[in-house]
Amino acid sequence: VLLVFAKEDSQSDAFWWACDRAGFRCNIARTPESAVECFLDKHHEIIVIDGRHSRYFEPEAVCRLIRATKPSENTVILAVVPQKPPDQEEPSVLPLLCAGFSRRFVENSSVSACYNELIQMEHGEVRCQFKLRACNSVFTALEHCQEAVEITNEDHIIQYVNPAFERMMGYHKGELIGKELTELPKSDKNRADLLETINTCIKKGKEWQGIYYARKKSGDSIQQHVKITPVIGQGGKIRHFVAIKRPHVDNNNQIHKFNKEERCSGEHSQSECHSLRHRDRRKDSIDARSLSSRGSDAPSLQNRRYSSVARIHSMTIEAPITKVINIINAAQESSPVTVAEALDRVLEILRTTELYSPQLASKEDDPHTNDLVGGLMTDGLRRLSGNEYVFSKNMSQSQLALPVTLNDVPPPIAEMLNDEECWEFNILELEAATHKRPLTFLGLKIFTSFGVCEFLNCSEATLRSWLQLIEGSYHSSNSYHNSTHAADVLHATAYFLRKERVKSSLDQLDEVAALIAATVHDVDHPGRTNSFLCNAGSELAILYNDTAVLESHHAALAFQLTVRDSKSNIFKNIDRNQFRTLRQAIIDMVLATEMTRHFEHVSKFVNSINKPMAAIEETSTSSMNSDCEGQANIRNSPENRLLIKRMLIKCADVANPCRPLELCIEWAGRISEEYFAQTDEEKRQGLPVVMPVFDRNTCSVPKSQMSFMDYFITDMFDAWDAFASLPGLMEHLSENYKYWKGLDEMKCKSLRPPPPS
């Protein structure tokens, strides 16, 4: 932002502090000359010119000076105008607009008023100017691309052709722009009804691709591969057509029949597909020795390039979703109008990127759910900000005791650990008994019972050192995301791995990967969400491009810590291939705990495992053994084992609502406190508040817990219970929901009901 104010006053100060609050860089110029000089150096997005005191400079003249420079065409210029007495006529804004101003601001020295004005401009005019600025890049790309590009409006009047089009057709763009396509000479080599077929297709808003003969300016016909795409514009109507054309290459010198080459909406003719699939690829290549000098080799170079493209298109690399869309497209052609319209809606849904994310009702309907989804399933507003949030690594949060063997565990702790195979195991009692080091003690017990040291060929001393290293890298200052949470998730993971159907679906490498992933899945967690880190411009958010920031960090740091020192490197004795397989499984499971893909993971599990297994149970009339064999085949495929492991760690990570009530209440209090602390910090730093309902002064903990259960937990655990058979957990979940619902009906916002009066 450039502020052009001759004198410093409360108005210029207000804009300065508003820029600071918004995280915008700001310069101040006192004279028209210094304003132009500064603008030409910095190319500001917003310029604010003081128009209240014409004795210093004429604001319109300053604006014209800036608008006379080339970089200003995409700059938003704001005029600050004086307040008028209520009885005076409001002056016209036209003189300001004619001078080059974008908008005006009636003087107001409130920092909040200036901040709101700047933010509105950023989200409105500035973003529009960014798009316009990007258009220059787009046109530069069009000018230099080798495909011929022709853009027409909805009435087929030519509005743009690029140099490649001019070269191919022999016209200059001045001879074409403004003319209707019907005015240009046509080749008589096309099938009689081809133009009508193309028009019918593109007027429906569908893309057309096929072979077409065009007539060059010289009168010669040229065979082209043409792709015409309708562009939807204002009012949801087709406003333009973009045609991309290139010479049709036939390296085998065969004439292709147009009625077989034509395709609309991505439909290939059977003959074309057949010829592409069975053509000898070696015949498509061009001998480099046949290429002549640069001056005469343009067609040959193009042919070589298009030959390569043709070979790429002939490969049978096609995503399943693409096949589904092509099948639906084909079905539409022979369907009644009502069915075709319904299929259009289906295609619209399938082409979105958020296939597995349910659409929420309006924010007013359920603010708790919306805030949870906003906080857990998005990566923030990605706002450019000067704020930096860098948390300490907290690698030595407390002096850890020397490693202990499983036999040396103090008797009270050993007695607690005897119950670790029970779901009702109280991890919080272990936390207290171990002075907030439950992960090392529980890890030793569980890893030993699953034979992890034997599998990894490492000593118990190495395992102990590793567990202490990982536990020391959790933040004990976090109320929720600390090593007790990691121990809790490890306990749930081990419990699930012991369930018969899970155990029979996975091998020992899967089990070891799951236990390690559970142990490290939140290592070095800062007690803030991904959205917070992205909004704060943290080092981690920048490092991981605002995508799965924390989960990527947990996985990467776990391996960095592990291999850093031989004393704690539990992987040092396994061979390279086994390590790569194990590493990939651990990373995949840690990344699965990220909530943005929650519904995708659950939906895939339900559709690939729950439903097929249920179908076998329902339709099987043979013996129980063959029934089990069919279900085992489903469970044991590599793809489905991956889904089982992801579902396992996802459920272990958020199993608190399925724990006994007292544990459920304690965990609810801890996660709420962590979210409250985040909201407090967002307000202190002037960051967007990601989850406004988690305000410690107004939040209803029962409502937030019910929303979390309704939206994330119930369906996922229904699916996991159907697979792993967990009646005890489901009973706890039901009882806990009733507890929170009872508190909510009492209008109680806290963890527990008020004491009786």
Question: What does the secondary structure layout of this molecule look like, with pairings?
Answer:
Layout: E1 2-4, H1 10-22, E2 27-29, H2 32-42, E3 46-50, H3 59-67, E4 76-81, H4 94-99, E5 103-106, H5 111-144, E6 148-153, E7 158-161, H6 163-169, H7 173-176, H8 194-203, E8 208-215, E9 221-232, E10 238-247, H9 258-261, E11 263-264, H10 270-278, H11 281-284, H12 298-314, H13 320-333, H14 337-350, H15 367-377, H16 411-417, H17 427-433, H18 438-449, H19 452-456, H20 460-472, H21 483-497, H22 500-505, H23 508-520, H24 530-535, H25 539-543, H26 549-564, H27 576-592, H28 598-619, H29 624-635, H30 638-653, H31 661-685, H32 701-724, H33 727-745
Helix pairs in contact: 1-5, 2-3, 13-14, 18-20, 18-21, 21-23, 21-30, 23-27, 23-30, 26-27, 27-30, 28-29, 28-30, 28-32, 32-33
